[in-house]
Design a protein that fits this description.
Blueprint (H helix, E strand, L loop, with lengths): L8 H23 L4 E7 L3 H17 L2 E7 L5 H13 L5 E4 L9 H7 L11 H9 L12 H14 L18 H10 L5
Parallel strand pairs: 1-2, 1-3
Helix pairs in contact: 6-7
Length: 193
């Protein structure tokens, strides 16, 4: 029986933010501006607002040009889609994130599909999902992957070593946000899931 190991997620996250901050500085030096991230928040869902505050704090810590676009809960789907069209076309915006859940009058699938796959920092666009599930071996580093599953994979590699090949993994849950992409990432790492 193996011994339990404590995984210090806070230390790993701090180290990752330091690495990202260095990459942001390098990007800003090359392009004369930092990468731009825009978060779209529809309505005033308390948990969503808390997530968005944390994302804004982390973005500021690493030096991103981050901005929040707040839309009322009764916004029309068309108005939200028009906002995404504008963000997709804005060369100063490199990443777009729409905070879920969305109000019932808005179809989340249509919204996620409207985000430019190259700006889809959540990795939820159908093209990014398809690329992840079609990958064998290490995913292309330009592939945008949901952050929680990627964080899990990073912690596993820091704890168990970079080569996870041949390990058996159990993923409980099948959500599009965590379970399914984590299973795909583990399969890419040559695990039996």
């Amino acid at each position: 029986m193996s011994r339990a190991r404590l995984i210090d997620g806070k230390a790993a996250a701090a180290a990752l933010r330091a690495e990202i901050a260095a990459q942001v500085r390098e990007f800003a030096a090359r392009h004369e501006r930092p990468p731009g991230l825009r978060v779209v928040l529809v309505g005033d869902h308390p948990a969503s607002r808390a997530y968005v505050r944390t994302k804004a704090r982390m973005a500021a810590e690493v030096g991103l040009d981050s901005g929040l676009i707040e839309l009322p809960a009764d916004v029309s789907e068309r108005a939200l889609l028009n906002q995404l069209i504008a963000l997709n076309a804005d060369p100063a915006v490199h990443g777009v994130l729409v905070q879920l859940p969305l109000p019932e009058q808005i179809d989340p699938a249509r919204v996620l599909d409207a985000i430019d796959p190259k700006k889809d920092v959540d990795g939820f666009h159908p093209l990014n999902v398809g690329r992840l599930f079609a990958t064998s071996g290490a995913p292309d580093p330009t592939l945008l992957v949901p952050c929680t599953p990627m964080g899990c994979l990073i912690l596993l590699r820091q704890t168990l070593g970079d080569d996870l090949g041949g390990r058996r993994a159990l993923v409980i849950g099948r959500s599009n946000i965590v379970g399914k992409p984590l299973a795909a990432l583990l399969l890419c790492a040559d695990c039996t899931v």
